[in-house]
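Human: Note token order:
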Amino acid sequence: MTHKVHPYIFRIGQLRTWKSRWFNMKSLSTYLREDTLLREWLAKKLRSFHMESIEIERSPNVLQIILKTSRPGMLIGRGGEGMEQLKEDIKKKIYKIWKTVGKEPGKRELKLNVEEIRSPETHAAIASQMIVDDLEKRIPFRRIMKQAIEKISASKEVHGVKISLKGRLDGSEMARYEWLKRGRIPLQTIRSDIDYAESTAFTTYGTIGVKVWIYKGDVFADAKKV
């Protein structure tokens, strides 16, 4: 049998970096648990804002969360009301996470940074979420796949794209696997810039898994794509 490797992890240290950028030997397990639960909660809470990634940085007295989204205006809200409310919700969630292990989170400054994603259709995480939204609206899956392929391939920086769906497509009795591909997807080449994401659509017939691969060319030592 083949051994599958996550395209993001496969390129850590070469083209990618960690989404949690900190190190603390004494509180490693506690902070790691906090990062994992906080990221899962934020991904679910901010699902409608089409998040590309949620990155976390720590210093002794500061917890900084970087939210990369294609809809920054909706997230920030009028006069920054959305950000202030989100910050309060995050503080409450952190307190609950620490309370389960019988500890206090301590006094730390919480900083939220929102970064806008340009050309959202060329980012796998956002593209997969767009497909999920269409599936939950009961649009035929073949039309969704073809439209997504066309939209993603329209960008000049995209050299290849692959989309796969798995589940009870169109409400069929038996689950099946369907995929569509255009261009090249060199998964075994470390220097190839492969953006990968997976999402889950919750329909009345059950869940449908969505996977998206986007190939944006090769990155060499001079950091230029060809």
Notes: The chain has a mean pLDDT of 90. The beta strands are 20-21, 51-59, 62-69, 109-116, 160-167, 176-183, 192-203, 206-218. Helices lie at 7-10, 28-45, 72-76, 81-99, 124-136, 141-153. The first helix runs from residue 7 to 10.
